């Protein structure tokens, strides 16, 4: 049989097929091959009952995340707080670069918008910037309406929530998945960020789609990203980069750079370019990691 793994817990893997849940284990050769089934994996398995089965094969993944450990993710709802903690385009762009690299669609959810209702200029500025690039932006000032809008993106998709610590990921998950009662933590005033707890991951059906029932990553390190790859992960750069004089233009110092020209005429946001330069410097200074050779 073939199905999708929807929960992994204590060495057991739970697979859904035609609204039936099969409890299975992984064959011993998975460990030898250093393969670990992940929630979201499509697998083939054999089973004599709903409680006794074995996974035979993992089918190729289109992507995978480490936190939470989920494979074949279609989209990530990136929760960005406007206040407490304050909005950070730097953090948001780090998330978006990571998702672009993995080929995962991003939906931006601006939380705590009711706390900046008197000054809507920040919200409009963020919306204008990211909608122009092509990212959907949902503003959580009217939570009920925002939730209904968010649900329209769920059918037929495997969705994970992510975002900066303290942004309200758990609160939003509890609203998406009534009865989940996921623990939320108060913001640490001294650190200006929230805390997060580790749980096992389960995919729960919502609006004919699947949602991971635990918040995802809250920070990103660019360990597997190259300097040449970075500019290709900014969609608005890609749109104009074919007009650059040099094919592998870094968009920093080369003459006739279409990206820098687009920034000057307002086609590309200055904040995005500023964050690009910070990321580029980070990658340039990143030390290569060398693996020690095993002694014979």
Automatic annotation (TrEMBL):
Q: Where is the CP-type G domain?
A: 62-220
Q: Which residues bind GTP?
A: 111-114, 163-171
For this UniProt entry, what is the primary localization, expressed as one broad class?
Answer: cytoplasm
- Listed binding positions for Zn(2+) are 244, 249, 251, 257
Q: Extract the InterPro entries matched here.
A: G_CP_dom, NA-bd_OB-fold, P-loop_NTPase, Ribosome_biogen_GTPase_RsgA, RsgA_GTPase_dom, RsgA_N
Name the domain of life this protein comes from.
Answer: Bacteria
Q: Does the keyword Transmembrane apply?
A: no
Cofactor(s) the protein requires to work: Zn(2+)
Keywords attached to this Swiss-Prot or TrEMBL record, sorted alphabetically, are: Cytoplasm, GTP-binding, Hydrolase, Metal-binding, Nucleotide-binding, Ribosome biogenesis, RNA-binding, rRNA-binding, Zinc
Q: Give the CC-aspect GO terms.
A: cytoplasm
Q: Which GO terms describe its biological process?
A: ribosomal small subunit biogenesis
- Domain spans labelled EngC GTPase: 71-218
Pfam families per the record? Answer: RsgA_GTPase (PF03193), RsgA_N (PF16745)
Q: Which GO terms describe its molecular function?
A: GTP binding; GTPase activity; metal ion binding; rRNA binding
Provide the E.C. number(s) assigned to this enzyme: 3.6.1.-
Its subunit composition reads: Monomer. Associates with 30S ribosomal subunit, binds 16S rRNA.
Annotated function: One of several proteins that assist in the late maturation steps of the functional core of the 30S ribosomal subunit. Helps release RbfA from mature subunits. May play a role in the assembly of ribosomal proteins into the subunit. Circularly permuted GTPase that catalyzes slow GTP hydrolysis, GTPase activity is stimulated by the 30S ribosomal subunit.
Name-wise, this protein is Small ribosomal subunit biogenesis GTPase RsgA
**Gene that this sequence comes from:** rsgA
